[in-house]
Amino acid sequence: MSLELIEVSKSYRLSGQSLFRAKREMAVMNVSCSLEEGRTLGIVGSSGSGKSTLGKLIVGLVKPDAGDIRYKGESLLRPQARQRLFSELQMVFQDSRSAVNSRMTIKDIVAEPIQHRERLTSSQLTKRVGDLLTAVELRPEEMNGYPHQISGGQLQRVCIARALAAKPRLIVWDEAISSLDAMTQWQMIQLLQRLQKEYAMSYVFITHNLQAVRHLADELIVMSRGAVVEHLQDAKHLDQLRHPESQRLVQAMLTSYRST
């Protein structure tokens, strides 16, 4: 098993509460799920369902209050395992503009994780960045530009190239294509499918968009109020969804169909 979450919970202190008598809100509650190597787990839910917090828990951006997160059979809560394995986990966010330093060139953005891991000559680094940009269907010449000079879809590809630069085995996509127009979303779905095959990676794909999940995910969990309320072994069979939250997402997808 590539990834396993065992009864994972996470809460946050409500704003305006004192440290000593603070009320807490459960963002993730007793979530258990797993992902086999090379496959994609879709996590869907409305805003506030806890799906993004779950993604941050997986890659170690936040720590759980309870439960365990295991990767390749080892607990990521153990410091030694965390230090050794977290480099294999990457996360790509929805807002690519806030995910990069606008004062850095595209080359420097993509090169950053490489320079943390390897010692390369300037020419070797330039070639590596060019290869990564080509992999995400951008022209290598664009490495000398800045984020404000390219479109949102292109910048999201830069963020994907940066994630690939770390040589991950698992990528968490947190609403990574949601802010893009319909045509660009479809192009990105095709890109993610190709990259997964070429780089032999596992994906956790977080979204509120069931249509995107149907194309990308092997299996699917639906979250509501921090808990998993439904689990489909085959994400293609959306007609089998029964929970009210799942039905709301299905209706949103159908409404989107009718408006296009």
From TrEMBL:
Signal sequence bounds: none
Keyword annotations: ATP-binding, Nucleotide-binding, Transport
InterPro entries the UniProt entry points to: AAA+_ATPase (IPR003593), ABC_transp_ATP-bind (IPR050319), ABC_transporter-like_ATP-bd (IPR003439), ABC_transporter-like_CS (IPR017871), P-loop_NTPase (IPR027417)
Any one Gene Ontology BP term: transmembrane transport
Entry's transmembrane regions: none
A GO molecular-function annotation: ATP hydrolysis activity
Keyword match Mitochondrion: no
Annotated SUPFAM superfamilies: P-loop containing nucleoside triphosphate hydrolases
PROSITE patterns found in the cross-reference section: ABC_TRANSPORTER_1 (PS00211), ABC_TRANSPORTER_2 (PS50893)
Domain ABC transporter stretches: 3-250
Name by which UniProt lists this protein: Nickel transport system ATP-binding protein
Protein's organism: Paenibacillus aquistagni
